[in-house]
Amino acid sequence: MNELFLARMFAYSLLPLLLATAHILLSKESRSVARRVEIFTVYLLAISVGANGLGGAFGHLFLSDLVAEGIGWPAGSPFQLEMGYANLLIGVLGLMAVGRRDGFRTAAIIATTILGLGATLVHLQDIAAHGNLAPGNTIQNISNLLDPILLIGLSWWSARRFGAEMATAVFQQWQMRQQPIAGLAAAGIGMGFGLGYAVGGLFVWTLIGALVGVGMGLVMSRRAGQATSGLVVEQR
Question: Is the pTM of this model over 0.85?
Answer without folding.
Answer: yes
